[in-house]
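Session log. Operator J.P. requested a structure for one protein chain; no other inputs attached. Running the standard single-chain path with token output.
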Amino acid sequence: MKPIKIFVDCHKFDEDLQGITTYLKGIYVEMTFKKNIVFYFVSYYPEKLKTVFGEKENIHYLKYTSKNKYYRLIFDAPRLIKLYNIDYAHFQYVIPPFKFCKYIITIHDVLFLDFPEYFPLPYRLINKFLFRFGAKNSNFILTVSDYSKERIEKHFEVKDVVVTPNAVNSVFFDEYDKEKAVQEVYQKFGFQNYWLFTSRWEPRKNHELVLKAFVEGSFYQDYNLVFIGKKAILNKKFKELFDDLSPNIKNKIYILENIDDYNMLNLLRAARLFIYPSFAEGFGIPPIEAIASKIPTICSNTTAMSDFVFIKDGFFNPYDINDFYKILENFNYNTLEDKKAQLKKQYHWNKSASILESLITK
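Structure written below.
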């Protein structure tokens, strides 16, 4: 039987690591064990991709000739698809305007349509058109949660969106020495005994709630507060709150970005508490990575995050700071092992890889 050729657009690996790269790595590291499928991973820096997906007989790496997204979609991707006689091409959110094989599109979320107040008007107008075009002209539409599936089908009037859930990479489930992680973080970054929130900076991520609670509740007397993430969209509320703080409180707050995987894992393992207060998510990987690492975790109960039933006793209303305080006071620290076991059973990349494999091989 002739092997199936799949082209995987990996241009996001040329940028910052984020949810999309976690998704692609998780699914395709599992899928590359399938000898009946030949994989063509494509980016501007294909050498970087080799460190992600490895080298096997059924893996090929191709190079885009330009970093420009329009050139990539209009010229580069279609050219390579035709040149290598590709059967399926997998894109994230946006597909090329020309079609020379079957297309798979993953639309992780359409939050900008449900929560327009958190997104600039040009972003909303352009992406509504592009995402709809991709949904209408792809052979398979994938997403990462039941919540996103329902919203995509409603907004774009499509059916049969397939859920390929995000999951947690195996390293987060590994056993580790907590005290060693604490000491390594202290030696490298100069802090310990801290609350942690990892996410890129956007108004919908609700950084200001954590800062406000940390200050008004006087938690700075006992803890440090650490934010890790790329600055994407300015959060004016957070900036105003932070700028008004006294120097002694500011000294208890650390804002980091561009942290490599090793140090990110250590920072998570050494945390006293992980907080995820986002108003809206298409999935929300960071809180389940924290649960896998047995870090006490409290999380917003809205949108796709409401599916994380194993965090139920740590759910809070992100619009209500008093509910946040209540969860902190009543949190049960004795259920971390049970939560980890439930998570491992429900979310794993092999499940999502099997779903995608069944679509392209049936």
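Operator note: The longest strand covers residues 37-43.
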